TrEMBL record:
Annotated InterPro entries: FAD-bd_PCMH, FAD-bd_PCMH-like_sf, FAD-bd_PCMH_sub2, FAD-linked_Oxidoreductase, Oxid_FAD_bind_N
Alphabetized UniProt keyword annotations: FAD, Flavoprotein, Oxidoreductase, Signal
PANTHER family from the UniProt entry: BINDING OXIDOREDUCTASE, PUTATIVE (AFU_ORTHOLOGUE AFUA_1G17690)-RELATED, FAD-BINDING PCMH-TYPE DOMAIN-CONTAINING PROTEIN-RELATED
GO MF annotation terms: FAD binding; oxidoreductase activity
Signal peptide annotation: 1-18
Protein name (record): FAD-binding PCMH-type domain-containing protein
Gene3D superfamilies from the UniProt entry: 3.30.465.10
Organism annotation: Penicillium frequentans
Family statement drawn from the similarity comment of this UniProt entry: Belongs to the oxygen-dependent FAD-linked oxidoreductase family.
Residue ranges of domain FAD-binding PCMH-type in the record: 81-250
Length: 492
């Protein structure tokens, strides 16, 4: 089976990879010095790091070791999120995760959990002076007949690589090094959404370590309430140590890379809106990544030099395609902001034009890398959860939605507040206009949300109430709400 994939955008390259270093003190004491100052280590973290290093010494890394930087910096995508844990715990088995959670609980230590490290803001997947549980070594993969068991230490390229010899693929990430766990626990936008739903809709089983260290397996028939809540419920319920995902016979895919210059933008946006509205009974699995990169220094000079339209068609495997789409870690400081709306190409174009004008107002920010990204929810992608007998926490109606997003990169910490405020104010301003026009949606995709956004506010209220009830059943002590406070928390 060949499936068409479409990459459409105004720019595809030009990203730069800038490494930054983080230094920390060599031993655990009551304080530690970091590149950004001295951190006091709370009693809880000190207790947990000491106990972890006594009970599982090979799995604990302290500041000063070479592997400490690997785990706390090299795995992280957004440079803003480089933090300095008191120790890093790198479990080799689910049993070790369970033991660690018990110790953390006993010590009442603050902790963070990291999978692929792509959630892009400080605290989402890292922590200052607490315990970082880094899942890198839980990287087993087991291909079964029509499913694959994957550990949370894997990225999507590794999963696609394991499936390729069997001519199979799964619904995962579109870029190479995005992690399996974060994307799967928050949704999962992929080219096949219109046919198979989101990554979360394709999980048949989760192995979870709960807040008291108990290990459970959640499926449609066992802990079915937890099974539902994990389909978009993020890191509020436990640490997932194994996912079992559905796979599909997809030996090859048809791919197209299309590049346009700015004069074609209205048609480009119109085509995206029409794609979002497509609502076939039995759709062919197909999707796209649509981005517009604005070079604020040269304006669109780069693009006007290229032919009005360039198109590269290919037939390849999903592994090879993903390999070409890398998103290097430590790329830049970056702020995501986005909102959703009903498809309306004219309004989308006016948002784009206003965004471009607003970019010019911060053109003096060093290393400014502004990108306008568009994703969409198609009716058939929402139908999967409506009809599969399980559902997911999003509870979306079978209606098309356009998600317009600003991804803004920059170089220096001194510009953090300025760019973050700029991005937020702009998104809220356009959203308020869309509200007046009656085309705004409150759906926010956690994977692309800024830290200032509340994805749960866009879920049906009854789903949020149900999630909170499930949380109180599985984590009555609030280990994943208070001790692990990073990421998008369900709140009270
Ligand atoms: C360049 C780029 C491209 C992207 N492309 C896509 C895309 O194509 N499709 C899409 O849907 N999204 C995409 N995203 C968004 C992406 O889904 C999120 O960033 C997601 O969080 C990445 O997962 P991760 O494992 O790498 O992240 P992490 O930052 O490691 O984890 C994300 C959150 O999940 C928690 N977590 C991690 N592992 C576990 C676990 N085992 N159990 C419980 N909680 C856990 C972490 O504590 C954290 O709060 C992209 C993001 C970036 C930066």
């Amino acid at each position: 089976m060949h499936l068409p994939l479409l990459f459409a955008g105004l720019s595809f390259s030009g990203l730069t990879y800038a490494k930054s270093g983080a230094s920390a003190s060599a031993t655990l004491s009551s304080s530690m010095s970091t590149s950004s100052g001295t951190l006091e280590i709370p009693q809880g973290a000190s207790c947990a790091c000491t106990k972890l290093s006594h009970s599982m010494p090979k799995s604990v890394i302290f500041p000063g070791s070479k592997n400490y930087t690997t785990q706390t910096v090299d795995y992280i995508w957004d440079i803003r999120a480089n933090l300095s844990p008191a120790c890093v715990f790198v479990p080799n088995t689910a049993a070790e995760v369970s033991q660690a959670v018990k110790i953390i609980n006993e010590c009442q230590a603050n902790f963070a959990v990291r999978g692929g490290g792509h959630m892009n803001y400080p605290g989402a997947n890292n922590i200052d002076a607490g315990v970082l549980i880094a899942l890198s070594n839980l990287n087993a993969v087991n291909v079964k007949t029509d499913t694959v068991e994957v550990g949370p230490g894997l990225n999507w390229y590794q999963v696609y690589s394991a499936l390729e010899p069997y001519g199979r693929a799964c619904v995962g990430g579109r870029m190479k090094t995005i992690g399996v766990p974060g994307l799967t626990l928050i949704g999962g936008f992929h080219y096949f959404n219109n046919k198979y739903g989101y990554a979360m809709d394709n999980v048949v089983s989760y192995d979870v370590v709960l807040g008291n260290g108990t290990q459970v397996t959640a499926t449609k028939t066992s802990h079915s309430d937890l099974f539902w809540a994990l389909k978009g419920g993020a890191n509020n319920f436990g640490i997932v140590t194994r996912f079992e995902l559905k796979t599909f016979a997809v030996p090859e895919v048809s791919t197209t890379i299309q590049v346009y210059n700015e004069t074609h933008l209205p048609q480009f946006l119109s085509a995206i809106c029409e794609s979002a509205k497509l609502d076939e009974e039995d759709p062919i699995a197909a999707g796209m990544i649509a981005t517009i990169a604005y070079n604020v220094t040269t304006k669109f000079a780069n693009f006007t030099k290229i032919p009005a339209e360039a198109r590269i068609n290919n037939v390849t495997t999903i592994k090879t395609w993903a390999n070409a789409l890398d998103s290097p870690k430590q790329m830049f400081r970056v702020q995501f902001s986005h909102k959703s709306m009903k498809p309306d190409a004219k309004v989308l174009y006016s948002i784009y034009k206003a965004w471009k004008a607003a970019v010019d107002t911060i053109s003096d920010v060093q290393g400014l890398y502004p990108t306008f990204v568009i994703n969409y929810v198609s009716p058939s992608s929402a139908r999967v959860a409506k009809t599969n007998g399980v559902g997911n926490v999003w509870g979306l109606e079978e209606e098309p939605l356009i998600i317009w997003q600003f991804s803004t990169g920059w170089d220096l910490a001194q510009d953090d507040i300025r760019v973050e405020a700029w991005s937020r104010q702009l998104a809220e301003h356009f959203h308020s206009i869309n509200k007046q026009l009656g085309i705004a949606s409150e759906f926010v995709y956690m994977g692309d949300a800024g830290e200032w956004q509340d994805p749960y506010a866009g879920f049906p209220v009854e789903n949020v109430a149900r999630m909170r009830k499930i949380r109180s059943t599985y984590d009555p002590a609030g280990v994943f709400s208070t001790l692990s406070w990073g990421g998008f928390k369900l709140g009270l």
